[in-house]
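Q: Okay, next protein. This is Histidine kinase/HSP90-like ATPase domain-containing protein from Streptomyces fulvorobeus. I've checked the sequence twice, so it should be correct. Can you predict the 3D structure?
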Amino acid sequence: MTKDTSLYAVGWAQSFPISRGVRAGRRWTRDHLASMEWTRNAPESVDAILLSVSELITNAHVHARSDAQLVITWDSRCLHVSVHDSAPMPPTQQPEDLTTTGGRGLAIVDALADGWATHPQASGKTVTACFVPPALRSPRMGGYQLRYRVPHESAQLVGAGAVVPVDGWAVSRS
């Protein structure tokens, strides 16, 4: 008998113009997370996801001066939160500086997500963070780390409603 290697996935995509702000992205994400059964018993995970969405959309608006295309996909192992912007340069984590009021977005995402990565695209870049539900974690398993294969060309986000094929992503235990 052949092993079924198909992957069940659910996803949503929405564009958030600079004029609409971060709050709309956070509200939109909260509405979609409410439809996922595992989030009902994981308020800390929901808070971490919402804060990360805020930071990633803010980075797209402030640093890329770009609209943000937000894609959320759930593949039964990991909730992938991807934000695409039009700036080609990859984001950089800033050194800690307690005297500044900004520059902590990626450090926050790094602290809250189980892993994150940046993917260059023909029309900018996509930053993806992975959130593993608490029920799928085990103290013996240690942390999770994202392992990315080279995304398919069809994975390039070109605007609102674009779909990221989840077979281009994988989560592995570290």
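A: Here is a summary of the prediction. The radius of gyration is 16 Å. Residues 43-62 form the longest helix (20 residues).
Q: Noted. On to the next one.
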